[in-house]
Design a protein that fits this description.
215 residues; alpha/beta; two-stranded antiparallel sheet; 8 helices
Length: 215
């Protein structure tokens, strides 16, 4: 099964795997139970610490899966929430669980967002840019920038130098780098609001760095 997937990856873009069974299996491993939502809420309390006086009133998550972040955000902010997700099964869960109305659940991918310029006060990814191939990453971060009118947040694995890692036995599906630096190199007019490291040993959902920028 692994070798078949590896062979198929050579003929398809990685996002096609997230749309299919590989993405649906991810849903099974990352359930939106109460514990997971509490973990994300703690992370968001940290992310928002520097902008409590100016919390966003409209938010889009790019690559939202079944909406663990969005479920956490409903208890923290009074904002219009939207989610974009390539996997149809995950989109169904978002609607069936009442996380978002169907009109706020969007099909698409990070490098070509179906939104207007500046449509949301905050655009964000958590553990999504790491799965975007380096050839598509410039378009993905430019789209995050384009659809935001105010804030951009990214929470991703960090590496000083770009590197590829095997992901669940597969190559071509996980990439690490300094994503914050990459965003600033492309959009140097951004202001750094805050940044930090989330540590699993201290209760975070994963070990990863995060960056919050203001336009």
């Amino acid at each position: 099964k692994t070798s078949n997937r590896s062979a198929a990856l050579a003929d398809h873009r990685p996002v096609d795997f997230w749309r299919g069974d590989f993405g649906s299996e991810y849903i099974g491993r990352n359930r939106a139970d109460a514990s997971a939502v509490r973990q994300r809420a703690r992370s968001w309390s940290t992310y928002f610490q520097g902008i409590m006086h100016d919390l966003p009133r409209s938010i889009v998550e790019v690559g939202c899966s079944v909406g663990i972040n969005l479920r956490a955000l409903t208890g923290l902010v009074d904002a219009e929430l939207h989610g974009l997700e390539p996997n149809a099964a995950a989109r169904r869960v978002l609607v069936e669980d009442g996380v978002l109305p169907a009109s706020h659940v969007h099909e698409g991918e990070a490098n070509s967002l179906p939104f207007k310029d500046g449509q949301f006060e905050l655009s964000f990814t958590t553990g999504v840019l790491i799965h975007v191939p380096p050839s598509e990453l410039p378009a993905a971060v430019d789209e995050l920038y384009r659809v935001s009118s105010k804030y951009i947040l990214m929470s991703e694995y960090f590496s000083h130098e770009p590197e590829e890692k095997t992901y669940r036995g597969q190559s071509g599906l996980l990439f690490k780098r300094d994503f914050g630096g990459f965003m600033l190199d492309r959009h140097p007019e951004l202001t750094i609001v805050d940044y930090g490291f989330q540590w699993m040993r201290a209760g975070a959902v994963d070990n990863g760095h995060w960056w919050l920028f203001r336009k």
